[in-house]
Amino acid sequence: MTLTGPFAFASFAESLRAALAPCPVETDPDILLSFSRDQAPLAPAGVARALVRARSTADVVATLRFANGLGIPVVTRAAGTGLAGGANAIDGCILLSVAAMDRILRVDPGTRTAVVEPGVLNAALAAEAARQGLYYAPDPASREISTIGGNIATNAGGACCLKYGVTGDHVAALEVVLADGTRMRTGSLAAKNVAGLDLTRLLVGSEGTLAVIVEATVRLLRAPRPASTLLAFFETLERAAEAIVAMESTTDLSLLEVMDRTTVTAVEDLTHMDLDTSAAALVIAQSDAADASEAISTCERLCRAHAARDVIRTDDRAEGEMLLVARRKALPALERLGTTLLDDVAVPKPALPEMMRRIAAIAERHHLTIGTFGHAGDGNLHPTIVFPGTDGASRAVAFAAFDDIVRAAVELGGTISGEHGVGSLKRDYLGLMLGEPERALLGRIKAAFDPNGILNPGKAI
Amino acid sequence: MTLTGPFAFASFAESLRAALAPCPVETDPDILLSFSRDQAPLAPAGVARALVRARSTADVVATLRFANGLGIPVVTRAAGTGLAGGANAIDGCILLSVAAMDRILRVDPGTRTAVVEPGVLNAALAAEAARQGLYYAPDPASREISTIGGNIATNAGGACCLKYGVTGDHVAALEVVLADGTRMRTGSLAAKNVAGLDLTRLLVGSEGTLAVIVEATVRLLRAPRPASTLLAFFETLERAAEAIVAMESTTDLSLLEVMDRTTVTAVEDLTHMDLDTSAAALVIAQSDAADASEAISTCERLCRAHAARDVIRTDDRAEGEMLLVARRKALPALERLGTTLLDDVAVPKPALPEMMRRIAAIAERHHLTIGTFGHAGDGNLHPTIVFPGTDGASRAVAFAAFDDIVRAAVELGGTISGEHGVGSLKRDYLGLMLGEPERALLGRIKAAFDPNGILNPGKAI
Questions:
Q1: What confidence score (pLDDT) does residue A11 get?
Q2: A378 Cβ under 8 Å from any chain B Cβ
Q3: Are B190 and A422 within 8 A, CB to CB?
Q4: What are the phi and psi torsion angles at A298 (to 5°)?
């Protein structure tokens, strides 16, 4: 079967529809275009051939069987909120949307687990868990609009990771479909399980390159205690970063975030919260431990010892939530300033002050605005490069700064991506993290799952 | 090169010595025999051809290159404290001991990590971390005599898992040698890292079938607070199990263990601690949370509400340690009663009462003594079958009970192994956990690491 020319294209669409009926298959170019990108505007994207809107595991199986037989690439997606181009179209691919597979199948307070389809929004699961007095911890900033399937595929992080770990720490079991259409289950409801290799953990973060997730069993926690919250403004980035290292190494916190002056100013312009835009950095800490108030008092002392100019604290949950709005608005506020290129790097915690110094120096060197915010307690920063134009020259300068930031993180013993994934945006940097033997091994593992290489080829690994 | 007959054997040993010199290579049959078993006396073991006592990564590389070229199986071992026969010899294999690679290379309070060779004892690392005010959490019962390499290879558990997770949750990075002698690094010092697939987690628990661990970077925690401790004696196993489920689902505990009457009686006979041997079960709980004393008070109330006949509690750390001795002596105490066949199963937590009922019924049905103890808060039990003889008939009855226990755990939604591993003892049960597609996939992943199948073939997967 050859697939060139308009007739061949028509016959491709017809055969796909025939293979999948009654599952909706879109081939309208405008629709395809609108599904061909995630939220990484500067990551490369190709032209898709069709969009399958799967409604069930059977639809996923049928799509993969069809594609595998013909060697057609399949890019799986749900909400498309990814930040590394992992869900971007590949030329000639089938886009396989699992967004409509959005049922919460079960929440079980006994085992403290929930079974969900991949298209369930993170916030919908969290709300359902909360209704039953339970807590779904993983909290990527996108949680209101991103799905559990995408969260698992990227091993999404969030502010909770400092205490509660990443998405993968909360996945008990998966049902997936392999490239040839074989259904497979991994994991267990038992809290501990060492039967066989840990395929669940291998699939988490594999960005659609190994299999398509069709069901996930996630762990829920008991509802956390009310948190105590602190906001501290610092004269210099260095003192803020040092205070963060001091707090993280002595205190039991559930959140420890940073925003630099550029970010604080952008948020203040958006929200009029009366933030101190003359400070070089804002640090936000929370504890939900049994001694939360005492922990936050310790943080207050440490911030003052590191020359914080102003400290606000509260033991009230609602007030704490209001203070967190400043952090939640960081990215939308920066996006109002121009085109943005969002980076995501993580360094070992003691390297945080040096990393923040280097980002500032990179901004200066390239005459660029870089707003830096992130999960500082984990050493995970999101330097966001803001530039006015969308022309090639502007982009080139932005990418040069992006490049410098990624390399600085690796030089400091860190990683090219803390939580957003590699996707298509960072694939060229994998060589900074992995040697030739590791990359060759990843290729062999990929082939063990997907011998024809149809699943999101050219991404992530 | 053929390897049969005495001359060929001599030439094999000579070529191995020549390839490895000056690394010690043993071929004395008595020495080989003493290194041919771990601590699972009833798991099958073969006859090894040589023992290599590796002193460095270079020795491991040379051993694997030699073995891979000739297709000779390699069984890696360190202290040999495994409980599933994972380190048992295979006929004609090279035993590769990494016990002498026992240096703690670095403890870094800044990143809260330690870099160790695989032969470092768990307790030695924990002690060194403690000297620096830090805490290595994974605490398998064998920690005084088992190594970090073995702990990682089996993803060892322990009592800490309830709060702190399994060994794999504390491994940041690995250096391993692949079957062909290639050295490879995985992981990162950053707290969050999503670059590439999670090879670190895939290697954890792979029981020597994928690669040989030559260095591990593990995460350390801040030293925990002093724990509060509770011991409660119950009239019936069911009420004890129900109390455990109630405590686990409401209270922030760091340890929640159970021992049945058989185990308590054996421990009392050994220790004369004045334990109540007329009770059907003893439950031990600890909390090291900021509100530990309050948490233990809640547990006390819950135990009394579930008809505990006697409750002892203390907020004193030293007293708590003394009370824990009862639990630590469980296995040695049972081993004094006869030959033991130690099982290791885990069930979803709500199934704990039913699992304990079933174990009692299995003991009755087979007219056997079964002492059950374990990490009840995780649903992880170690029913220990005690039988007088070592003859075939006695063993057959013991294995029939073992079989019933494993199947009961799986029927209740649990796993064939919570923390001891599959090794050779439980390989026949893998089919209860994994379907044909999963097993085929494990085989393909194994081949991606070890195409000639020399690493611990016939074990674990």
A1: 86
A2: yes
A3: no
A4: -60, -45
Query: Using a CB-CB distance cutoff of 8 angstroms, which residues of chain B are in contact with residue A192?
Result: 157, 161, 166, 346, 375, 378-380, 415, 418-419
* Radius of gyration of chain B, Cα coordinates, nearest whole angstrom: 23
Shortest alpha-carbon distance between residue B65 and chain A (Å): 15
B9 falls in which pLDDT band (50, 70, 90)? Answer: low
| Structural domains present in chain B | 5-97 (3.30.43.10), 104-222 (3.30.465.10), 225-334 (3.30.70.2190), 338-461 (3.30.70.2740)
B188–chain A Cβ distance below 8 A for any pair: yes
pLDDT (0 to 100) of residue A9:
55
Whether B390 has a pLDDT exceeding 80, the answer reads no
Which residues of chain A fall short of a pLDDT of 50? Answer: 1-2, 6-7
Closest residue on chain A to B155 (Cα): A194
Q: Considering only CB atoms, which chain B residues are within 8 Å of A252? A: 290
The answer to whether the CB atoms of B194 and A434 lie below 8 A apart is: no
Q: Which of B61, B164, B192, B257 is the best mutation test for A, with the most CBs of A within 10 A? A: B192
**Full-model pTM:** 0.96
- Stretch B93-111: mean pLDDT: 98
CA distances from A255 to A37, A138, A151, A287, A383 (A): 31, 12, 19, 7, 19
Tens digit of each residue's pLDDT (9 = 90 or more) over A219-266: 999 999 999 999 999 999 999 999 999 999 999 999 999 999 999 999
